[in-house]
Amino acid sequence: MCLPIRGKIIELHDSAGIRMAKVDFGDVTRQASLEYLPEADTGDYVMVHVGIAISKADEAEAVQIYKYLDQLHEENLALKEEIDHALMFEDIVGSSEALSKVLHQVAKVAASDSTVLILGETGTGKELIARAIHKRSKRADRAFIGVNCAAIPPSLIASELFGHEKGAFTGATQRRMGRFEAANGGTIFLDEIGDLPPEIQIVLLRVLQEREIERIGGNKPIPVDVRVLAATHRDLNTLVAEGQFREDLLYRLSVVPIEVPPLRKRVADIPLLLEYFIDRFGKRAGKKFRTIDKKSLKVLQAYGWPGNVRELQNVIERAVILNDPGTLSVDETWFKRKTLQVAAPKLPLNGALLRQE
């Protein structure tokens, strides 16, 4: 039996009552029978045995291979995205008591399949904690799919997460696999979960309960074996009280909550982070720094770091660029935040008259 291969239908016609398709396989075009694929249409991607009819058994085999290839395709896209967008830093750097406590929790929860909610301020490294959990889990050899819920328009997030069928909405020219299907067997990381629209919160709750999804425009449940990790810098309890976040979804997500400490609570880690970032950015810039100016070190340790590790990374990258090799120093003016002066709101004429009266 020859292995079914993937191609795109570019033309349809009948031959002796059997639906035939002209299929483009990239470097060659061949005829194939679509007798057992009545729903196939021009533009669709199909799995076929070139030049022969697809038997029912072969069709089932082809469908499985098609799904597997699609999943590999999505995993490859996710890997490229991970490589192209540099993370805050590759490894979790530090030995402070606050960070050690978090890493101890990571080691314990990684072995389970429970949902984890990672809490912490912006820039503390929540995605690094999520990746650490994945790498130490039994799913480590499968995909880690990250989704920033705040970066996707509300109108597109359902399709992004759960996929859609061909013709489900304007512009849906072919079936698309969502992030949950792409992460099947692996881990999905929902960053900024607090920004998820209310209607998607309901769907996500069902996914967590039933472990199955439905594509937009579809009516067939698709089982998914995915571990869900979520993160937010927002106070979800406050959002629940304000009616912006579902309480039952919060319970589902926070089976194991992990709070990542801000940098101001792990000052002991700053020298290690400095050494790490100076080496990293120094190699990138072709510069070597032997020491850091003592006055600069004191400034860095005394600063409150509202932007946390991400802000420290940016400061060191700037210092490496602006300093000559040898001794690294930072400018104290970089840490003086300018207060924005907000102009008084302009009142319409009728409002000014009303206030005067």
Record field, number of beta strands: 13
How many domains? The number is 3
Assembly status: single chain
Can you tell me the CATH class of the largest domain? Alpha Beta
Distance between the ends: 91 Å
What order do the SSEs take from the amino end to the carboxyl end, as H and E?
A: EEEEHHEHEHHEHEEEHHEHEHHEH
Helix share, percent: 25-40%
CATH architecture field of the largest domain? 3-Layer(aba) Sandwich
Considering the protein shown, what is the CATH homologous superfamily of the largest domain? P-loop containing nucleotide triphosphate hydrolases
Mind describing the biggest β-sheet? 5 strands, parallel
Strand order of the largest sheet: 6-7-10-5-11
* CATH topology (level 3) name of the largest domain: Rossmann fold
